[in-house]
Design a protein that fits this description.
About 40% of the residues are buried. The chain has one domain. It starts with a helix and ends in a 22-residue tail after the last helix. The protein is an all-alpha fold. About 60% of the residues lie in helices and about 0% in strands. It is built from 13 helices and no strands. The longest helix is centred in the first third of the chain and has 17 residues.
């Protein structure tokens, strides 16, 4: 499922290498046709906009969008555990799931970083990938809703992902009554929901079989170092 790798790449810190790869990334989405037409169109428009903007503007917007506030953080366990010790143990458990399948994170990359999880899921059988991502769908919906409020172009990526999971409409409706400028209400909305309701053990089912190693990984721009590293 190369489309999940493309979505992972689009959620990484924008670099000149990423911008140069946009035509190839779009070709993957078009050729695989894993997403619905509406979501493919949204991603195409998003990628066209990325290709037309100044790289420094893209980088500044990325930081403003994902690195300033929990509501749009791409580190999934941050939505659940914040900076508590529970988050550390959850990341250790998830990293072990990756490693048991032969998937090794790049230096400085945290296991709860959504692009890393998407890349891992892209190498799983489709049923396992769907099950794994369904378990954190409530977080994906919350981030998508926060991006919708901000009218962020990155919303297209979350619409595509939730659409593939068959959750787009219901997921976004869940947050429609949240105040527009009140970020804590989004955090509180999902604070009691575990990132993986079935526990880390349920992730192990998704890890059975072959996962991608550093040698196998698709030639896409590397993810940046996490600000939490």
């Amino acid at each position: 499922m190369m489309t999940l790798k493309v979505l992972a790449a689009l959620l990484t810190y924008p670099t000149e290498k990423l911008v140069a790869a946009l035509p190839d990334l779009h070709a993957v989405i078009a050729d695989e046709a894993m997403l619905r037409t509406q979501e493919r169109r949204g991603l195409r428009a998003f990628m066209q906009a990325l290709g037309e903007e100044d790289i420094f503007d893209l980088q500044e917007r990325y930081v403003d969008t994902f690195d300033r506030g929990r509501a749009t953080s791409l580190h999934l366990f941050e939505h659940v555990h914040g900076e508590s010790r529970d988050r550390g143990q959850a990341m250790v458990d998830l990293a072990q799931v990756y490693e048991s399948a032969g998937y090794h994170l790049r230096g400085g990359e945290l296991p709860d970083f959504l692009p890393a999880m998407l890349e891992f899921a892209s190498e799983r059988p489709e049923a396992d990938a769907r099950a794994m991502l369904h378990e954190c769908a409530h977080i994906l919906a919350a981030v998508g809703h926060a991006l919708d409020i901000r009218r962020s172009p990155y919303l297209a990526v979350f619409e595509a992902l939730l659409g593939w999971l068959g959750l787009r409409s219901a997921a976004f409706e869940a947050g429609q009554d949240a105040p527009e400028a009140d970020e804590p209400s989004l955090d509180e909305l999902w604070a009691e929901a575990p990132a993986f309701p079935g526990g880390t053990a349920s992730c192990s089912a998704a890890a059975s079989g072959r996962a991608c190693s550093d040698r196998d990984r698709v030639a896409m721009p590397p993810t940046r170092r996490s600000r939490h590293a």
